[in-house]
Design goal:
The structure holds two protein chains of two kinds. Chain A is mainly alpha-helical. Chain A has helices at about 1-30, 35-45, 50-60, 65-80, 95-130, 135-145, 150-165, 185-220, 225-230, 235-240, 245-250, 250-265, 270-275, 280-290, 290-320; strands spanning about 85, 90. In chain A, a hairpin with a 4-residue loop joins strand 1 and strand 2 (about 90). The relative contact order of chain A is 0.13. By secondary structure, chain B is of the alpha+beta class. Chain B is about 30% helix and about 15% strand. In chain B, the strands form eight sheets. A five-stranded mixed sheet of chain B has the order 18-17-19-15-20, with helices on both faces. In chain B, a hairpin with a 7-residue loop joins strand 9 and strand 10 (about 280-285). In chain B, helix 13 (about 380-385) runs antiparallel to helix 16 and helix 20 (about 560-575) packs antiparallel against helix 21 (about 580-595). Chain B starts with a helix and ends with a helix. Classes of the chains: A mainly alpha, B alpha+beta. Chains A and B meet through helix 2, helix 3, strand 2, helix 5 and helix 7 of A and helix 18, helix 22 and helix 23 of B.
Chain lengths: ~325, ~675
């Protein structure tokens, strides 16, 4: 087991190296650079910029150098924990991301918990009552959740929250609490705002999870061991929770690899629509304005989390399910 | 209010003509009116004064402050207090505070004449000797005196010191030569050039002004000449900058007020350390303007700028979340905003935009395709395309008839406006268009009635757009119909902005759609560089512009006589010693543009919705919303805007009160 973990950890190094090259290349691919998009943006708003000033800035930030040289400069910084410098904010990247990380994690965490709390009972219920009216009804609601575009749902809920509860539009708290120290009022204000993104981001995930759980469970319910358990006189609920449900849980564990980066990145589009101070909008705007160190470092951070998440879920799977063999095909 | 606003607009129009001549050539002195006899202490600062943290108002103001009388602009004398909320998109937008504040050494007044603002007065001799007098007793926002030392610091320690500066700004050079600068006493500084420098004062009055002074007492701690070396190194490391030069530049920056520590001269001072999504600006207790009643400006105590998704801004404005907003509102939001106005949450006004054309079709004179390049360069071809556009129909169908059908030229509010510039080839005349197209060698047509190019291809124009506005697509579909009648097929292709520019610069794009002149409210004192091929970003002649920008190193020299004529006229303007000569140069350039239709303007004088709190006073009903001149709201003095009833609440109270009221949307559904 230890050797396995060690090997996997070593494998992460080349994986991340390849990802870093990909990230850098993709960010470099579109024509122009941050300064050109900055000029274009200013000019579109009717403002003017001195060309010499832009040339100067490009030199200051090393944009006159070869991309390969810049890549190594960037990676070298990453290795020392220096995420680089954001042009748009004129601040070190860690400072910008750090500030938003808390709310992003909070929202994502709540979302995941809410998703699980809704999806689990419904998934189990509809698997056990397959093709009944209640199964159809819940499935229908779930599919509605998948089919409704997130951003639309966000707009509608924001509108309704404003109409019914007088919640201010957008943001994570009423304006007066931004930049203020924690207080009861601030906490309440956040609670007033946070349920919208949690529900909006949650709906799509919930529906997906209901369907997966239902399908997995149905597979298991056909199997002999379940019948045996029932035949031995176990009650239906007990039989299901004790055996097939545990089998069906594998996919939850396998999912952790995906959840980890998701917790940090948040749902970008919804966050933009709702004007949340999370990391998602930050990443999108950095990509749009080609603020490359901000975007690149953030993507690398996500990649690292994904790789770690996958490792964790693999290890957990091995621990939870003895049928899974670590060495893969090599044992034969 | 409506009436006063109208008078104000009429006032601006009437006196617009005088504006250009008020710019001083002969030795001219501009001095302020007498200060009020007694000053009224600002309530929100009274406590600090009592405790001795701040000197009383009479000592905070310069001896001779600038007196701004709102009643002269059709407004009313205001009261102190309250908070103004603005909505912005990104942290970069903080620069709007400096634009809107518009505190400059000299600034444009609402008649587009130049007036001393931070300066007490200025004199100009021969157009080359500029003597500035500061206001005695004027202080930075931290209370430190603002004197000619701040000018000296910039001149000697920044502009002429490569260790921290970027070198001499190009705008300080006339024919490549810098001025001689004399610091005569604490409040007098003189700049002398060998030749006339007509761009000096306008660039100080610009929305993004030329910086010629810095808070010396603050900046010295970042300057290698004054600061301790080890200390400086530590500071550079602490903020992860490359070198002391960057640190100095960052600390010196005034265009984007991010640093709460840097002393400023603006009416509101930054108090929030970035990054944040909410920035609070408090009143500058040492601001140099007062009203005639003796109240130190600004009236409003606090400005709050909230950052958020720009697409949500119209909705938030409709819900009353902004007290003054024009940025990120578009004309198509107008009906929505009007509906909100009916419910009483906001007030909406329509201001004029200052572009020469809201939308213009831009033939690329540097196109790569030889056949199209030849056509684009033929002025008859451009004239024909312009004549084949039914501007009336477009105005009625898309702009509710509120725009003005015009060529891409100066707007009627400008003293340089002439009717024939606006009307040049802007009528709808298909017969004449067809005649002209026959004459340029496009006489042959194919079975569909599309003209054939000399090399046999069909005359199909692929018009590229930056792909950002659905309005453009609507207008173009109307143009497509009428161009077809002239035998020209029009296809549109939307692109992405950087790509859009790149392809035009490289000549791959034959024709594009963009906007017209930036500053169509210009006066003769404004530099006409925009009319001559001087910038690569001029989409009709990018190569010529690049040639000028790089002094001939890159790009191509203008090889049409008109291009050279425009450059010659620009040089005449730059060397002109009299206002008449400048005016003549302007008109020469405008005439060349009118005849040549380098850009095909569709409509101009489109409207900009301006939404504000119903309690906000002194915002003119009609104004021009322009970056240059005047920094959007800046020229109308936002420091004179005040909130009715704000003085009755205890200075700045929480806005929970307004949140508690039934929201506008409730009222809407309640109906």
């Amino acid at each position: 087991m230890l050797i396995y973990i060690l090997r996997r950890a070593l494998l992460m190094i080349p994986t991340l190296a390849i990802i870093s090259v990909l990230v850098f290349t993709i960010i470099e691919l579109p024509p122009g650079d941050y300064f050109e998009s900055y000029v274009a943006e200013l000019e579109a708003a009717g403002e003017k910029v001195d060309k010499s000033q832009i040339e100067f800035l490009k030199q200051e930030y090393g944009f006159d150098r070869h991309p390969v040289e810049r890549y190594f400069y960037w990676v070298g910084g990453l290795l020392q924990g220096d995420l680089g410098y954001s042009f748009a904010y004129e601040l070190p990247v860690n400072k910008i991301i750090g500030d938003r990380l808390f709310f992003t994690i909070l929202i994502s965490f709540l979302t995941i918990i809410v998703t699980w709390m809704i999806a689990f009972p419904i998934g189990i219920y509809s698997a056990m009552h397959q093709y009944s009216w209640s199964d159809y009804g819940l499935t229908f609601v779930g599919l509605l959740g998948i089919a409704t575009p997130n951003f639309l749902l966000a707009l509608v809920m924001m509108y309704l929250a404003n109409v019914w509860f007088g919640t201010s539009i957008g943001g994570l708290m009423a304006q007066e609490y931004v930049n203020q120290p924690w207080s009861w009022g601030k906490f309440v204000s956040i609670l007033e705002h946070i349920w919208i993104p949690v529900i909006v981001i949650g709906t799509a995930g919930t529906a997906g999870m209901i369907r997966t759980l239902r399908a997995n469970l149905l597979d298991e319910l056909q199997k002999q061991y379940y019948r045996t358990a029932r035949a031995k006189g176990l009650s239906r609920t007990k039989a299901v929770t004790k055996y097939p449900l545990r089998m069906a849980l594998n996919f939850f564990v396998a999912d952790i690899g995906g959840i980890l980066p998701q917790i940090v990145s948040g749902a970008e589009i919804v966050a933009i629509v709702l004007s949340l101070e999370t990391t998602g909008p930050l990443l999108i705007s950095a990509l749009q304005s080609q603020d490359m160190y901000l975007a690149g470092s953030f993507l690398m951070f996500l990649a690292l989390l994904t790789v770690i998440g996958v490792l964790i879920s693999d290890i957990l799977l091995a621990v939870l399910d003895p049928r899974i063999r670590l060495a893969g095909g090599r044992t034969k | 209010m409506k009436k006063t606003g109208l008078t104000f607009a009429a006032f601006a129009l009437l006196f617009g003509g005088i504006a250009s001549s008020s710019f001083a050539e002969r030795a001219e002195t501009v001095s302020a009116s007498a200060p009020p006899p007694v000053y009224i202490e600002t309530p929100s600062l009274a406590k600090a004064v009592e405790k001795g943290e701040l000197p009383p108002v009479a000592q905070r103001l310069p001896e001779n402050p600038r007196v701004l009388d709102p009643t002269k602009y059709g407004g009313t004398l205001g009261r102190h207090g309250g908070r103004m909320r603005w909505l912005m998109g990104k942290q970069k937008d903080l620069r709007m505070l400096v634009y809107y504040s518009y505190a400059r050494l000299v600034g444009y007044n609402e008649k587009y004449g130049l007036k001393a603002d931070i300066l007490e007065k200025f004199t100009v001799e021969d157009g080359r000797i500029f003597t500035f007098t500061l206001r005695k007793g004027h202080k930075w926002s931290d209370g430190h005196p603002f004197t000619t030392e701040d000018f000296r610091y910039w001149w000697e320690d920044v502009a002429n010191d490569k260790r921290v500066g970027r070198g001499m700004p190009a705008k300080m050079l006339v024919n490549g030569k810098p001025p001689t600068v004399e610091f005569i006493d604490e409040v007098t500084v003189r700049f002398t050039w060998e030749d006339a420098n007509p761009e000096f004062l306008p660039s100080l009055a610009a929305t993004r002004p030329l910086v010629i002074f810095m808070p010396a007492h603050f900046m010295k701690q970042f300057h290698p000449r004054y600061a301790d070396k080890a200390e400086l190194e530590k500071r550079v490391k602490a903020v992860k900058l490359r070198n002391a030069k960057r640190l100095h530049m960052r600390m010196a920056r005034s265009a984007r007020p991010e640093n709460p520590e840097r002393p400023m001269l603006d009416p509101w001072i930054q108090t929030t350390k970035p990054p944040s999504t909410l920035f609070t600006f408090r009143r500058n207790p040492f601001y140099h303007r007062v009203d005639p009643a003796g109240r130190q400006l600004p009236y409003v105590d606090e400005v709050r700028i909230a950052m958020g998704s720009t697409s949500l801004i119209p909705a938030k404005v409709g819900a009353g979340d902004s007290d003054l907003q024009a940025r990120y509102l578009r004309f198509d939001d107008y009906t929505f905003l009007k509906a909100a106005e009916k419910r009483g949450t906001i007030k909406v006004k329509l201001w004029d935009k200052s572009r020469g054309a809201h939308m213009a079709i831009v033939p690329n004179l540097n196109a790569k395709d030889p056949v199209w390049r030849k056509l684009n360069r033929d002025k008859r071809f451009r004239q024909a395309l312009s004549l084949a556009i039914n501007r009336r129909e477009i105005n009625q169908a898309i702009f509710y008839g509120l725009a003005k059908e015009s060529a891409d030229t100066i707007l009627p509010g400008s003293p340089l406006y002439r009717k024939d510039y606006a009307k040049a080839f802007a009528r709808f005349d298909l017969d004449r268009a067809n005649e002209l197209l026959d004459a340029v060698g496009l006489g042959e047509r194919d079975g569909d009635g599309i003209r054939l190019l000399p090399d046999g291809r069909r005359a199909e124009i692929i018009l590229t757009s930056a792909g950002e506005s659905s309005e453009q697509a609507d207008v173009l579909s109307l143009i497509r119909d009428t161009w077809r009648k002239a035998g020209i097929a029009l296809y549109t292709r939307s692109s992405q902005r950087e790509l859009f520019r790149k392809r035009i610069y490289s000549g791959e794009t034959i024709m594009s759609v963009w906007e017209g002149l930036d500053n169509a409210m210009a006066s003769a004192a404004t530099s006409p560089t925009e009319l001559a091929p001087t910038k690569q970003s001029q989409l009709h002649w990018p190569q010529w512009g690049l040639y000028y920008e790089t002094s001939g190193e890159q790009g191509a020299a203008p090889d049409l006589p008109e291009g050279r004529k425009l450059i010659a006229a620009l040089e005449r303007w730059q060397a002109a010693a009299s206002p008449d000569a400048r005016k003549a140069a302007w008109h020469a350039m405008l005439k060349i543009h009118a005849q040549n239709v380098f850009t095909i303007g569709i409509v101009n004088a489109t409207k900009q919705p301006v939404a504000m709190s119903p309690k906000l006073r002194n915002v003119p009903d009609h104004g021009v919303y322009a970056y240059e001149p005047g920094g959007f709201f800046g020229i109308y003095h936002p420091d004179l805007f005040w909130l009715e009833g704000a003085d009755k609440k205890s200075s700045v109270t929480s806005d929970r009160a307004t949140n508690g009221e039934p929201s506008i949307l409730t009222k809407a559904t309640g109906n």
